[in-house]
Amino acid sequence: MNIVGGLQGEYQITNGYGPSAAPKLLRDHWNNYITEQDFEFMAANSLTAVRIPVGWWIAYDPTPPAPFVGGSLNALDNAFTWAVYGHHPALVAIELMNEPQAPDVKFEDLTKYYRLGYEAVRSHTPNAYVIMSNRLGQVNPQELLQFARGLSRVIIDVHYYNLYNSMFQQWNLQQNIDYIYNDRASDLSKVTPANGPLSFVESNRSMFNIEHTGEWTSALAFDGATKEDSGKFAKAQQDVYGRATFGWAYWSYRCKYDAWNLKQMIQDGLIKI
């Protein structure tokens, strides 16, 4: 398999390995990468929700269009069976899109899609929250607030990383931590107006909520950052993102890179929930 431009996802994997080898490869991954024991670990360590990426082709399972492989719906069903925290049903929310990019994605197009997606979800469930991701890029962080106010049980998802910008590579640990306590806290206040809706954690009757930090990690951009540095950085983010009205999600639960690996960070005692 020749990888061109970096391995980006399931399409490249299934297309590259082909219809003979790809099914076994993917099914071995689904059966072994995340198991019921992982859900037991999460529950034992006070994690209360799991954010699962789902490809559009899952709607056509077990016979999705080529080159995708059937079986992903069964893997998702297993997760629902294992994810009984508290009361059934296990489904809390559905996110319509992950990280739309500005300026390629226009605000008008995105809100049209979000309204159609919202209506589709509501045709099946009145209770599941509908998560709408803010656009990434140089945009007004409040641009979805007015649109979402007219909808029921909606959450705005924002992602904060001290990565992907050269200034973070030039900073030491303390400068990164200070940025969380100052700039990120300010960013949160912009999407949580003082006269805004009730917090999710205070009232299940709230019509509109903000998931302050749908994604974050303890990975640092500067050279020489240690796992202990990542643990201190994670603590700062927990302090700030812990104010979220709907919660936060760490990216990712498992990863070959330690600072991106929540399970490993917990096992090493560097992150405590």
From TrEMBL:
GO biological process: actin filament bundle assembly; cell migration; establishment or maintenance of cell polarity; polysaccharide catabolic process
InterPro entries from the UniProt entry: Fascin, GH, Glyco_hydro_5
Coiled-coil annotated residue ranges, if any: none
UniProt GO molecular function: actin filament binding; hydrolase activity, hydrolyzing O-glycosyl compounds
Any GO CC annotation of this UniProt entry: actin cytoskeleton
Start and end residues of each Glycoside hydrolase family domain: 85-183
Record key words, sorted: Glycosidase, Hydrolase
Spans through the membrane: none
Family: Belongs to the glycosyl hydrolase 5 (cellulase A) family.
Name of this protein: Glycoside hydrolase family 5 domain-containing protein
Lineage: Eukaryota, Viridiplantae, Streptophyta, Embryophyta, Tracheophyta
